[in-house]
Structure formats: structure tokens, C-alpha cells
Amino acid sequence: MGKAPITNRRQLGVIAGGPATNSPVIGGTVPLPNIGRIGTYSEMAKLTKGFKGEIQAHKLVEWRHLKTSGISKSEVPAVILERTTHQDITNALRTEMPFRKKYTTEQMMNSYQNAYAESAWIEIVKAFLGY
């Protein structure tokens, strides 16, 4: 706790292993291109083009939790997921942290840890939230 949050794209590259790196495939996903790849939202969204929504970019930290950080939406860390995995994780996060409420960093970290099985994702969330 108490670490400075990630504030720029270069820092994401260091945390995620470079500008768009492959992390382990998440259990239950189908073998589609780039599944599990991590980078900025803008990079990952470009890689999903042409797959008719079968693969989607998922922001590892919801934009609503980073609005005051100075990070643009396009620079939020993201991972490419298969459609149903993306929806399952999004639903879990919305259940954990409904909209129109404020959350402490600790509450957010607990919610992300409950929603994400992938430990590399948690490290990125910690870095961006300054946890």
C-alpha cells in the first residue's frame, strides 16, 4: 500500500512486460488470436477489429477508477478476452462494485482480486491504483 500509481504508458510497458505482451491464456477461453495479450486499451482494441466481437479488449482497471489519475481512456491497461469470458468478468466486477458509489483503494483491490484469477492482472491493477 502507499505506492505511487502508474501515470503513463511507459510504466505500463514495464509492468506488463512490454508494449503488448502475451500472458498465460485464461482457463475456459477458446483458442482465438491474441487471447490473454496485455497492452493499452487502444492497442488491444485495434487487435480485436474484424473478429465480430468474438474477442474483446477488457480494461483491467475500470476507467471510472482512473478518471482523476491523468491517464486517458486509451492508455488504460487492457487484456484481450473471448466474448463470454469478458462478459463474465464484467458482470462480476459490476456485482462487486455497482455504479454510483465511491470505493476505497482497498475495496477496489478486494473486488479486482475476487474477479480476476490471473495474478499478473492483479499486479497491474495494484500498480495503477497505487496499492
Mean pLDDT metric: 80
Calculate Rg over CA atoms. 14 Å
State the secondary-structure class.
Answer: alpha+beta
Task: Report the count of strand segments.
Answer: 4
Q: Strand order across the biggest sheet?
A: 1-2-4-3
Please estimate the helix content: 25-40%
List the helices and strands and how they pair.
Layout: H1 9-16, E1 21-22, E2 37-40, H2 41-47, E3 55-59, E4 77-82, H3 83-96, H4 105-115, H5 119-129
Antiparallel strand pairs: 1-2, 2-4, 3-4
Helix pairs in contact: 3-4, 4-5
3D structure, described in words:
- The relative contact order is 0.21.
- The chain is built from 5 helices and 4 strands, in the order H-E-E-H-E-E-H-H-H.
- The protein has a 4-stranded antiparallel beta sheet with strand order 1-2-4-3.
- The N and C termini lie close together (4 Å).
- Residues 8-30 have low confidence and may be disordered.
- It is an alpha+beta fold.
- The radius of gyration is 14 Å and the shape is globular.
- The chain has helices at 9-16, 41-47, 83-96, 105-115, 119-129; strands at residues 21-22, 37-40, 55-59, 77-82.
What does this entry show, briefly?
This protein is α+β, with helices and mostly antiparallel strands and 131 residues long.
What would the keywords be for this entry?
13% strand, 131 residues, alpha+beta
